[in-house]
Amino acid sequence: MNRLEGKIALITGGNSGIGLATAKQFVNEGAHVFITGRRDPELAAAVKEIGRNVTAVQGNVSNLADLDRLFAQIKREKGKLDIVFANAGMAKYAALGQITEELYDLTFDINVKGLLFTCRRRFRCCPTAPRLS
Prior knowledge:
The chain has 133 residues and is an alpha/beta fold. Helices cover 47% and strands 15% of the residues. It has 4 helices and 4 strands, in the order E-H-E-H-E-H-E-H. A 4-stranded parallel beta sheet has the order 3-2-1-4, with helices on both faces. Helix 3 (64-78) runs parallel beside helix 4.
């Protein structure tokens, strides 16, 4: 079934887990998928596993310059972006008394800041895209 034929998708954190499984499904349904991740070896392995219609872009969603570079590449290479799956996230656990400011910043930068600015930059990249109410 080619429900996503001709669609361009972005999956942050697409190099493993739910993101990788989603990238494979989107490609199987006809989309070209951009995947992101922080580590090149894992991205290369994901591209090999997906096999086709995939572009890996190394970067960290909590780094706004990385997001700008990512969206500029998508716009340059494909000219549009139809689907965003803001999947990148992390979890490191500590007892309440052991949570450091560094752990808090890392967690919120990736899980909250990354999500917010990924979605915000999507509309800056492709301003004619449909918006959610």
